Amino acid sequence: MDKTLVLKPRVSEKAYAQSQDNVYVFSVDKSADKLSIARAVEAQFEVKVKTVNTVLSKGKAKRTVRKGGRPVAGRTSDFKKAYVTLVKGDSIALFAAAEDDKAEKPAKKEKK
After folding, report:
1. Which strand (E) or helix (H) includes residue 55?
2. Across the strands, what pairs with 73?
3. What are the domain boundaries of the chain?
4. What does CATH list as the number for 8-104?
């Protein structure tokens, strides 16, 4: 399950802020355990994992209205997040492309 474990990075403001502190957030399969998550991160990104914390988030209740005006209740899927802390000095280039784009853009010229 180590190399076949799908690690989807969660891209949000909170995840970006935590990546500055060497903590990266991934969406993982609900059956994945901490050890398999750590091994998968080490194998896929070639870094050393310090700790892994997991959170099982419950899906939210949603309600829609059908064409005839009939309300239909449902739920979004449950999901699991893994907060992976790396050893000091290691990093994953998840947000590096976004930071490079900001650095390359020239400043806007003032209109005269």
Report:
1. strand 49-57
2. 63
3. 8-104
4. 3.30.70.330
The answer to whether the pTM exceeds 0.85 is no
Helix (H, G, I), strand (E, B) or coil at 51: strand
Give residue for tokens 């802390």. 85
Neighbours of 41 (CB within 10 A): 24
Cβ proximity of 71 and 64 under 8 Å: yes
Q: What is the distance between the alpha carbons of residues 96 and 51, in angstroms, rounded to a whole number?
A: 22
User: Tens of pLDDT along the chain (112 residues)?
Assistant: 445 788 999 999 999 999 999 999 999 999 999 999 999 999 999 999 999 999 999 999 999 998 888 999 999 999 999 999 999 999 898 877 656 555 666 666 666 6
C-alpha closest to that of 42 among 12, 89, 87, 80? 87
- Here the tokens at position 47 are 């870094």
- The contacts of residue 97 (CB under 8 Å, 6+ apart) are none
